[in-house]
């Protein structure tokens, strides 16, 4: 089956995942993590892509981005991925691919999912049993968004800014969101939408996106024809 084209639209957030090939490690030392973030900052500025949240895990990365142009995220990920692979191969005297194919992404509905996706990203080290609290993990945006640490990389999204009148109140209210577990249904929706390239959002958001891209942006209904009388009759022929 041919792959559907990416869902890329200007000014709509995207949740991006890129994994190491065969789920193998893509970060080996602190210098690797730092270089990745430095180049993420460079290319996000070059291609006018705002970075709202991130986590760098041992064998994959999660990013929450908003491009100002339709192809901003694609250009960012292509440039960042190429540079980082060359750096790793040169540094560790290795050859071949580092990433597992194309990065995966989904468009994110501001009204329903933006802050949930941001928390999902920053809670990754906790779900992986690497730390007990997201603030204990060094390579994520949690300390910026929840604790007020300064960062040249992170650009607050409107959804975040609406949490309070100033940075202190925004951090306080954002941190309070972590006292509630993310619903299992939301985790499933985030994973499925990102891995399969569908849209993550409510019905109105889905309809708006579909009107813009002119193609199906959610999974097709399964089993409808199989349950029809015509299908059952054909099985008897």
Structure, explained:
The chain has 237 residues and is α+β, with helices and mostly antiparallel strands. It contains ten helices and four strands. The protein has a four-stranded antiparallel beta sheet with strand order 2-3-1-4. α1 packs antiparallel against α2. It is globular.
Task: Describe the structure in brief.
With 237 residues, this protein is an alpha+beta fold.
CATH superfamily: Transposase IS200-like
Can you tell me the CATH architecture?
2-Layer Sandwich
Which strand-content bin applies to the residues? 5-15%
Structural class: alpha+beta
Report the sheet with the most strands, covering strand number, pairing sense and barrel closure: 4 strands, antiparallel
Point out poorly predicted stretches.
224-237
State the separation between the terminal residues, measured CA to CA: 29 Å
CATH first level: which class? Alpha Beta
Radius of gyration from CA coordinates = 20 Å
Helix content: 40-55%
Number of helices: 10
